[in-house]
Amino acid sequence: MTRRSIPFAVLAAAYLVLVGVITLGPTLWRTRPTQGDYDVLSLSTWLDPDTWSRVTSPEFVANILLFVPLGLLLRLAVPRLGWFGAAVLGAGVSVVIEVLQVWTPRVSDPRDLVANGLGALAGALIGAALARVGRVVHRPVHARDAVGGRVS
What is the DSSP string of 97-146? Predict the structure, then answer.
């Protein structure tokens, strides 16, 4: 971790706490479907076509958007991870959340796992692009001139 990445690490930790509260904390509404409707640990749920019939729902999109900042912050906080490592770590956070939801009144849903993984991937790719832009912008002037073929 570099000095420049420390603020991103603090933001990533804070955002991770927020995601934990949102996904594992109590809700004002009933979240448990009828017995056995969804369970991320159930192979039959993963294989049931009905599970995947609502992947364009607003909830699916919201789950993607929830994990974009996490993927972005992980990529910027730990540059050595690269975009792939940040995406995998973000998806791993989602696995932990979904498994923990099995034992709470929350819904453990394979669609959430997929959506969260896609969000972490998108955020990690955005982070990689921002890191690349940052490297180009912070290059010494003589290095930029040599790359562009310009002479001052």
Answer: HHHHHTTSSS---HHHHHHHHHHHHHHHHHHHHHHHHHHHHTS-HHHHHH
Which one-letter amino acid corresponds to residue 117? G
**Which of 66, 68, 86 lies closest to 78, judged by CA?**
86
**Pick from 114, 106, 79, 63: nearest CA to 8:** 79
Interatomic CA distance for residues 14 and 96, integer angstroms = 17
Q: How far apart are CA 88 and CA 121, in angstroms?
A: 8
Checking if the pLDDT of 29 tops 90, the result is no
Which residue bears the tokens 């603090």?
10
Other Cβ atoms within 10 Å of 79 Cβ, number: 17
Q: Return d(Cα 99, Cα 109) in angstroms, integer.
A: 9
**Among 26, 27, 109, CA closest to 63:** 109
List pLDDT tens digits, range 39-93.
777 777 778 787 777 777 888 899 999 999 999 999 999 999 999 999 999 999 9
User: Residues, the chain, total?
Assistant: 152
